[in-house]
Amino acid sequence: MLLFSVVTTVRTSHGPSAAPNPAANHHHPSGDSSELQALRQQCEQLNLESGRDKAMIDGLLRERDFYFNKLRDIEILCQENQNSLMVKDVLDILYATDEGFAAPDCAEPQEF
């Protein structure tokens, strides 16, 4: 009959305070530097393109607002003078929609 057993434990680390050596994990193959340089150039190029795109979008938004305001002024002028046949034709053109597009009816409340 065996009363005592011997247990042997082999530790592979020194507990929670053991941390990998960061210097041991830094390998610098010769391609890393050139790859990093290429990525930096790509990032710079994308930033330039993004800036140009933002400027173009700003210009398009200003142009859209300009023409919208012109059309709105024409609409108001036409609504004040609806007795003329030509004004009615202009309003028909302003309110015409493309096939498949329906303008919202302003008389009905919109639910979101």
Report on the architecture of this protein.
- This protein is mainly α.
- The chain has a domain at 37-95: Single alpha-helices involved in coiled-coils or other helix-helix interfaces.
- It is 55% helix and 0% strand.
- It is built from two helices and no strands.
What Rg, in angstroms, do the CA atoms define? 36 Å
Number of strands: 0
Low-confidence stretches: 1-8
Given the C-alpha coordinates, what overall shape results? Answer: rod-shaped
Helix coverage percent: 55-70%
- Structural class, please? mainly alpha
CATH topology of the domain at 37-95: Single alpha-helices involved in coiled-coils or other helix-helix interfaces
Report how far the terminal alpha carbons are from each other: 82 Å
Q: Which CATH class of the domain at 37-95?
A: Mainly Alpha
Q: What's the helix count?
A: 2
Mean pLDDT figure: 78
CATH architecture of the domain at 37-95: Up-down Bundle
**Percent of residues in beta strands?**
under 5%
Largest sheet: none
Q: What is the ordering of alpha helices and beta strands?
A: HH
